[in-house]
């Protein structure tokens, strides 16, 4: 079993709980204020506010479930592999000053950055497109589409940021990236072969175990130590 000592409680789950508290504590005063100011329309504004909070919480809840499901899969790796979740890597070009990486695996054959998506629909797109399209079916059978950020571009950015950081800290090593759609209903259809692996539902553990880097990984221990330091700062 993989080393999971650096796995901490999912931030998205914590944010969902905060959203529930926000609705309970803040929602009532807002509703009262709207009833006073907008006696005929307060309920419309109130519902819009409520649905916006619930919708954001639902998205975060889905993301948290996807990451937890993927972690359960990765735990099946041998004990020579170490798992990290939600690591903040310094990035001066980012608004928050860092880039968050969902999951990182460190093993004898390299470092793997895993970008997790939990879409429960068919997703179409292109390697170079800014956005992909999720094809969804509503509760009453109606079909609609929604844009999702291109996870390949997200992943490449994350790999680049991590590689730059490790290089600055004399911990350069081989880094590979994987996009993993964790939901059992996920189906991905791309118009051209992806430049990084895009896996659906399964095959992630096997991919990592069978991966052969183009050159022998160096500084793996130093890289792992730096990730431990970053993880401790992220908490």
From TrEMBL:
InterPro entries: NERD. The keyword Transmembrane applies. The keyword Membrane applies. The chain crosses the membrane at residues 19-36. Residues 62-185 form the NERD domain. PROSITE patterns: NERD. Keywords: Membrane, Transmembrane, Transmembrane helix. It holds the Pfam family NERD. This is NERD domain-containing protein. The lineage of its organism: Bacteria, Pseudomonadati, Pseudomonadota, Gammaproteobacteria, Alteromonadales.
């Amino acid at each position: 079993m993989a080393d999971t000592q650096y796995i901490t409680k999912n931030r998205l789950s914590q944010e969902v709980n905060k959203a529930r508290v926000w609705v309970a504590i803040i929602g009532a005063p807002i509703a009262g204020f709207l009833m006073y100011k907008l006696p005929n329309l307060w309920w419309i504004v109130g519902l819009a506010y409520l649905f916006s909070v619930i919708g954001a919480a639902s998205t975060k809840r889905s993301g948290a479930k996807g990451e937890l499901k993927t972690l359960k899969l990765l735990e099946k790796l041998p004990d020579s592999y170490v798992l990290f979740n939600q690591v903040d890597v310094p990035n001066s070009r980012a608004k928050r000053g860092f880039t968050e990486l969902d999951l990182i695996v460190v093993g004898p054959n390299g470092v793997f950055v895993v970008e997790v998506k939990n879409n429960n629909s068919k997703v179409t797109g292109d390697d170079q497109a800014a956005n992909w399209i999720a094809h969804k079916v509503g509760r009453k059978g109606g079909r609609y589409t929604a844009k999702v950020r291109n996870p390949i571009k997200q992943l490449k950015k994350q790999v680049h940021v991590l590689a730059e950081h490790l290089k600055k800290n004399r911990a350069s090593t081989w880094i590979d990236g994987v996009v993993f759609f964790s939901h059992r209903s996920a189906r991905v259809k791309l118009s051209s072969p992806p430049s990084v692996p895009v896996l659906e539902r399964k095959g992630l553990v096997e991919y990592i175990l069978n991966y052969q880097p183009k050159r022998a990984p160096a500084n793996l221990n130093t890289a792992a130590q730096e990730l431990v330091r970053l993880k401790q700062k992220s908490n």
